[in-house]
Design brief:
Layout lengths: L1 E4 L8 E4 L13 E5 H7 L9 E3 L7 E8 L15 E4 L23 H11 L11 H8 L1 H35 L1 H9 L4 H30 L15 H27 L3 H7 L1
Parallel strand pairs: 1-6, 3-5
Antiparallel strand pairs: 2-5, 3-6, 4-5
Helix pairs in contact: 4-7, 5-8, 6-7
């Protein structure tokens, strides 16, 4: 279990019971606030308020649960919460090292000097170190995932570019091989619009098969990337729809240029050259 000292807990995190008050002194019965993870693990079948918890052996003092708060992921934002947290009032469980959290509507980086001055005024012997904003703490937690994720993003962009080049090359080669056929179709009365639609439909049909196989492979393999994801599930529908739409747009652009060139084939020249 992770032990934390705190003088107060944000009210919007409180789920049941109460937080600490001025009545929780060194002379009053020891109290503790626990998180929802611990409740689900040990008190799922009963009301946790009023229950007692001992930290250590049977001779250690018992702490009475007075409140329940939400879970806090303070270890690794890329992983689900796997440890319970207990909160004790500083008046009963004072420690040398403490963590102070401040919520503000101002620019948090502008409050660094004021925080140091306030702590010094409260206790001149207390020093403040390692001051960071919440965004900085979150970024620090995800540092180990940022590099591989960036590499995957680069590989993804390269793959999209290579796909577009490959589709364009195949379509251009196909149009070059069908010059005589396209010329005959126009001689028989086929309009440029119908030629464009024909070439596009055949190209996109092949692309659709490739996208289908790619989506199937992604569904089977994406679970291996779960540890690198944050804020999105391995099977997020929005991501799959967005990526599929992007690839369709890229494929459409790659198919359009050769298809457009096919509409400009001169029937007489095509028949004579072939």
């Amino acid at each position: 279990m992770h032990r934390s000292n705190t003088a107060a807990i944000f009210p919007f995190l409180v789920l049941f019971g109460r937080v600490f008050s001025d009545t929780d002194t060194a002379e009053s019965p020891p109290v503790v606030v626990i998180d929802e993870y611990l409740v689900d693990r040990y008190f799922s079948d009963r009301d946790p308020i009023g229950q007692q918890i001992r930290w250590g052996g049977p001779d250690t003092p018992a702490f009475t649960v007075v409140g329940v708060v939400g879970t806090v992921n303070s270890i690794d934002l890329g992983e689900p919460v796997s440890k319970e947290r207990l909160y004790y009032p500083v008046t009963q469980q004072a420690r040398v090292n403490m963590t102070l959290m401040v919520k503000t509507s101002l620019d948090p980086e502008s409050l660094t000097s004021q925080l140091r001055a306030t702590v010094q005024a409260t206790d001149p012997e207390r020093s403040t170190t390692n001051i960071r904003t919440m965004n900085q703490w979150m970024s620090l937690s995800l540092d180990g995932r940022r590099t591989p994720t960036a590499l995957l993003a680069v590989f993804g962009v390269v793959a999209v570019v290579l796909s577009a080049i490959g589709i364009y090359g195949v379509m251009a080669f196909g149009v070059a091989q069908r010059v005589r056929e396209l010329g005959v179709r126009q001689t028989l009365g086929a309009s440029r619009g119908s030629i464009l639609a024909l070439v596009l439909s055949q190209g996109l049909r092949t692309v659709a098969i490739g996208l289908g196989l790619g989506l199937l492979g992604a569904l089977l393999l994406t679970r291996f990337l779960q540890s690198l994801l944050f804020g999105v599930g391995a099977y997020d529908v929005g991501v799959f729809v967005g990526v599929t739409t992007l690839l369709l747009v890229v494929a459409l652009a790659a198919c359009y240029l050769p298809a457009r060139r096919a509409t400009r084939v001169d029937p007489m020249t095509a028949l004579r050259d072939s």
